[in-house]
Amino acid sequence: MLEIDHRVIGVKLGLFHQQVEGPGMVFWHPRGWQLYRIIEDYIRDRMREMGFSEVRTPQLLARSLWEESGHWDKFGKDMYSVTDHDAERALCLKPMSCPCHIQLFNKHIRSYNELPLRYCEFGNCHRDEPSGSLHGLMRTRAFTQDDAHVFCAESQLVTEIGRFCQLLRRVYQDFGFGSYTVALSTRPPHRMGSEQIWDRAEEALANAASAAEVEFELRPGEGAFYGPKLEFHLMDGRGRSWQCGTVQLDFFLPERLNARFINDQGRQEIPVMIHHAILGSIERFIGILLEHYEGWLPNWLAPEPLVVSTITTADIPYALEVAADLKAAGLRVSLDTRAERLGRKIMDARDKCIPLMIVLGARDARERTISLRHRNGAQEVYNLDDSVPVLRNECGGPLAFRGKYLEG
Fold first, then answer.
1. 149 in active site
2. pLDDT, tens digit only, all 408 positions of the chain
3. CB distance 122 to 98 below 8 Å
4. Does 98 participate in catalysis according to the annotation?
5. Phi (first) and psi of residue 364, to 5 degrees
């Protein structure tokens, strides 16, 4: 049995590794990057359904932007800075994407008819975390946030927050987390803005959560420096709690960075900004998944959900044909045609946590069948022509996602 530590599981399954030359960074191997892309594409699909437009913003921006937004005052010691020698100014690698999305909003004069305006980005972020706090995928110096921001009028808050809370429920269920708790974190000691606006923001977020039928516990003093937030804590298979999703309400950054829209009275108004994340960090979420499932990811998430194995070398031509048919149907399939005994191939597939195995022998080739072996040892025989819908059902995952990103 694999040790229940995502770092051990990741190396054992050939997903990723880390080394001293890249402290807090991740070297993704092909199988690991396949898993990463499955998750990314799944989230991309969900966000598209929710009306978010995907964007891409720069990694390196002038420090003056981070000073203007207030992030430099709050996070400056944790940000990587370099010097632009030509312009003689300081630049910073972004630790988050929110000021960048405001720049997109500000590029045009916005009308109230455009709101709510929804952006999402797989934002590559860097933070200079203390070396002693680094822990595999759970805490890194380079990571990807599934960042999303909504610019809206205050009257649209309840609807926007409610629809995102519904999305979070659906996504967590799809990934196998049926249990989670929610906390409402309020104004921290170090914060921007007036107490009156904080009162308004906290009341608005609490009302929106209640309207969405989200039960929460209050956590005073743990909000972001620019606004209160809802934190979604998942419960894993070992009873541990992991904070992943967030919904943050922000009345301050749009004002600091001069975001405006023209309201229905023809006057300029400051939009409210909602910061969203479902997973938080894709790297960290993969670490949570690996420990939650002890390496045996659901079929739809497994980098290789299916391996086609031969009994003898004489079975190779039929195995190639079967694998080609399944790949053409959009299934992720690997081949094992080594001159090894079948027992060894079964053990190797188990070591890689491959949940499904097609074993092919002379009879299968003669009768145009496949022998499907499940992780628990159960076996079934299907005609080759009938096997595709069965296997797509086995490997397809969540219904709305099924058939879209099966093949890497």
1. yes
2. 456 899 999 999 999 999 999 999 999 999 999 999 999 999 999 999 999 999 999 999 999 999 999 999 888 899 999 988 776 789 999 999 999 999 999 999 999 999 999 999 999 999 999 999 999 999 999 999 999 999 999 999 999 999 999 999 999 999 999 889 999 999 999 888 889 999 999 999 999 999 999 999 999 999 988 899 999 999 998 899 999 999 999 999 999 999 999 999 999 999 999 999 999 999 999 999 999 999 999 999 999 999 999 999 999 999 999 999 999 988 999 999 999 999 999 999 999 999 999 999 999 999 999 999 999 989 999 999 899 999 998 888 774 444 444 444
3. no
4. yes
5. -60, -45
Given 34, 94, 98, 353, which residue is catalytic? Answer: 98
- Please tell me if the domain spanning 6-292 has the same topology as the one spanning 306-395: no
Query: How many other C-beta atoms are found inside a 10 Å radius of the C-beta of residue 203?
Result: 11
Write down the CATH superfamily of domain 6-292. Bira Bifunctional Protein; Domain 2 (3.30.930.10)
Inter-residue contact 125 to 95 (CB < 8 Å): yes
Residue 395 bears catalytic tag: no
Distance of alpha carbon 319 from alpha carbon 304, whole angstroms:
16
Catalytic residue among 6, 127, 187, 276: 127
Q: Which fold has domain 306-395?
A: Rossmann fold (3.40.50)
Catalytic residue among 46, 275, 284, 352: 275
Q: Please count the other Cβ atoms lying within 10 Å of the Cβ belonging to residue 8.
A: 15
**Structure tokens, 296:** 């045996």
Nearest to 315 by CA among 364, 278, 386: 364
Active-site annotation holder among 31, 149, 276, 345: 149
The yes-or-no answer on residue 229 being catalytic is yes
Specify the DSSP class assigned to residue 304: S
Give me the residue spans of the domains in the chain: 6-292, 306-395
Greatest Cα-to-Cα distance within the chain, rounded to the nearest angstrom? 78
12 catalytically annotated:
no
What is the rounded CA–CA span in Å between residue 312 and residue 340? Answer: 8
| Candidates 46, 145, 191, 395; catalytic one | 145
> Of residues 18, 126, 147, 174, which has the active-site annotation?
147
CB 277 within 8 A of CB 169: no
How far is the C-alpha of 325 from the C-alpha of 337, rounded, in Å?
17
Which of the residues 229, 276, 332, 345 is marked catalytic?
A: 229
Could you write out the DSSP letters of every residue in 326-343?
HHHTT--EEEE--SS-HH
